[in-house]
Specification:
alpha+beta, 22 strands
């Protein structure tokens, strides 16, 4: 048993003999075996125990057992108590998720405080098999079917090479007691149902099912490396980034030439919060019309002609009131200068316009374009919806959403900022004074 674990640690480069390693010690068979094996292998270890106060006297029993074991083995122990139910209620998460958050948050703090290299947790092969089945049932992609990683950041799992039965046999052979969590014996949650009902049934069909699933997960881990390398290269070639607008764009024509466009979309968009259902819908709409929108927390993805464009949600702009000529800051990067001038001229710059001052009624308002906004584009006589005008000049959905306007006190749009002024406010031969409006990037 010890040799098997030692070989697994060495093969995967999990632990060093020089550094300090923390062992998450619950008192159950798995963590007790992990503690004793790492000690016998000569690693410098300290134990950490969390009392979540979820099982009444049983939780306190576990704590006392852990204390006695660490005293007997002369291993330093770190203890912490949590009000798990209160945390779950406050953060509106399940008890299981609350315990996980609290446990790993404590481990991260301990690593920092003790200058430890890793935290060793006692997940074993059967845990990995259960996780594989759970993710398979949920329709997980390749990442979910690779099982539990032996090394994830500073969390190390040295027992993934052995089964639960091997662990119990080892403890029995050395006469070591351990505690049993009674909640693990009740099939009230999915993992317990798989452990107590599904796996025994599968083992009746094939006694080697756990080994075979473990081998499949290892094979998929190697496959995942190949897939990740291929996707990374595809992202490098296809994803065009606009640093100024903070957008990413992918050519639909180039996307459809990939061996698996849907897999690329999943890998590109999953990290942005898009789920598999949205990716399936997007894949089905690649031939769809421009303007189709998909939303995720923090991001919008839309079809813009022959491209998929991914853009971060913008913080809604509050209307800015302009009581008189002056210098005004619109946001962190843009200012607006408005000044009166007797120098009558017509500006031809996109960021600077001149309008007839007499026709302007203060206060002005700078705001984002709204549904139903209309104006009379310079040089025309009839009104046009701003949305139609922006479509005519081939603005993207992102540009339409972020388009700013300046309106007068009566709500009439004076200037579609950076695009075109309203014809009613143009400079004519009768103009005696102008207002010069200049957009300034700062």
């Amino acid at each position: 048993m010890k040799k098997k674990v030692a070989d697994f640690i060495g093969k995967n480069g999990l632990l060093s003999h020089e550094g300090l390693h923390l062992v998450a010690l619950s008192g159950g068979a798995d963590s007790v075996a992990l503690l004793l094996i790492l000690k016998d292998l000569g690693y410098r270890i300290e134990a950490a125990h969390c009392n979540f106060h979820l099982r009444g006297e049983e939780s306190d029993r576990d704590e006392e057992f852990v204390k006695d074991l660490c005293t007997k083995e002369n291993i330093p122990l770190h203890l912490i108590h949590f009000d798990t139910k209160e945390y779950a209620s406050l953060h509106q998460v399940s008890i299981e998720m609350a315990a996980r958050d609290l446990r790993y948050g404590y481990f991260r703090q301990l690593i920092k405080d003790l200058d430890a290299e890793t935290v060793c947790v006692a997940h074993h092969r059967d845990d990995a098999v259960e996780t594989f089945i759970m993710n398979l049932m949920r329709g997980s992609g390749i990442h979910g079917l690779t099982g539990i990683r032996s090394l994830n950041d500073k969390i190390v799992r040295p027992l993934l090479c052995v089964s639960r039965q091997e662990i119990e046999d080892y403890l029995h052979s050395i006469g070591q007691r351990y505690v049993v969590d009674s909640t693990n014996l009740i099939d009230d949650v999915l993992r317990n149902k798989i452990r107590l009902n599904v796996l025994p049934l599968l083992e009746q069909l094939n006694p080697n099912v756990a080994d075979n699933i473990g081998k499949s997960a290892q094979f998929l881990q190697e496959t995942e490396k190949v897939v990740e390398a291929a996707i990374a290269q595809q992202k490098k070639e296809l994803v065009k980034r606009n640093s100024q607008q903070k957008t990413e764009a992918v050519s639909i024509v180039e996307l459809k030439q990939l061996p698996s466009p849907e897999l690329f979309l999943h890998e590109w968009l999953a990290e942005k919060g898009f789920n598999s259902t949205q990716v399936e819908q997007l894949s089905a709409h690649l031939e769809g019309s421009s303007g189709k929108i998909f939303e995720a927390a923090g991001y919008t993805l839309y079809i813009d002609r022959e491209h998929l464009v991914l853009a971060p949600h913008k913080i809604p702009m509050k209307p800015l009131r302009i009581p008189e000529a002056g210098h005004y800051r619109i946001n962190e990067t843009i200012c607006m200068s408005i000044k009166e001038s007797d120098n009558i001229f017509i500006s031809k710059s996109a960021d600077c316009v001149t309008i007839d001052k007499v026709k302007v009624r203060f206060p002005l308002t700078i705001r984002l374009v709204e549904n139903g906004d209309s104006f009379i584009p310079y040089g025309m006589t009839g009104k046009k919806l701003v949305s139609d005008y922006l479509t005519d000049i081939k603005c993207s959905l992102l540009e339409k959403r972020s388009q700013m306007v300046i309106a007068d006190s009566e709500g009439q749009i004076i200037w579609l900022i950076g695009k075109r002024i309203d014809n009613r406010f143009r400079v004519t031969e009768q103009t005696s004074q102008v207002l010069q409006m200049t957009l300034i990037n700062s």
